[in-house]
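Async update (no meeting this week)

Hi team, since we skipped the sync, here's where things stand on the single-chain job. The sequence we agreed to prioritize is pasted below, unchanged from the tracker. I ran it this morning and attached the output directly underneath so nobody has to dig for it. Comments welcome in thread, and please keep replies under the output.
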Amino acid sequence: MYKIVATLALALLAGGTLSGCAGTSTSTASQAPVQVKAVYHINTDVNTVPAVLNNIRNHMNADPKAKIVVVTHGPGINFLLQDAKDAKGNEFSGTVSDLASKGIEFRVCNNTLTARNINPDRLLMETKIVPSGVAEVARLQAEEGYVYLKP
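Output:
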């Protein structure tokens, strides 16, 4: 045991790495930067959405390589319906289209569409329907390593 510890200590003092040994790691300086993946969760009505979309725009300005997915359910889907407007009368379609062109994805809960009897044809073309909004948020976090943001 002493020889193993001594060998490890000498290798570390020499600045070397021990790949393949449990409990050792290589320098993070040589590793590629991690791409930030964020899921923005929207389940509130259109009055809160302009601020959320502004947060997303700011996020992309600060980190253009970030992977951002917006998941909506309940009243949160309303801004993704054709002709939806904010309290000032501004349509969301232009902003959604602009963000989608930058790689932001917009996902809509099918459970909400069904419960509210909304025809999927009413959704903006930039959207994707997922079976369940809350399940999609959980899946992105658990399976794909997304961080959760609820602005």
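Quick observations from my side:
The helical segments are 2-13, 49-62, 93-101, 110-115, 133-144.
The first helix runs from residue 2 to 13.
Reply here if anything looks off.
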